[in-house]
Amino acid sequence: MAFVSRVIGPVLSQYMQWFPVVSLTGPRQSGKTTLTRQLFSDFEYVSLENPDARQLALDDPRAFLARYRSHVIFDEAQRVPSLFSYLQEIVDETNEPGQFVLTGSQNFLLLKTISQSLAGRVGIAHLLPFSYAEASRSGQVPVSVDDYMFKGGYPRLYASGVPSSDFFQAYIQTYLERDIRDELGVRKIADFERYLSLCATRIGELFAGSTLAVEARISPATASDWLSLLEASFVAFRLRPYYRNFGKRLVKTPKLYFYDTGLACHLLGLTSSEDLLLNQPLRGHLFENLVVSELLKHYYNQGKRPQLYYWRDSNRKEVDLVIEHGGQIRYLVEVKASATYNPHAFATINSLGDLMGIPPEQRVLVYGGPESFPTRHGQVLTLSDLGQLVEGE
Question: Per the confidence metrics, is the pTM higher than 0.90?
Answer without folding.
Answer: yes
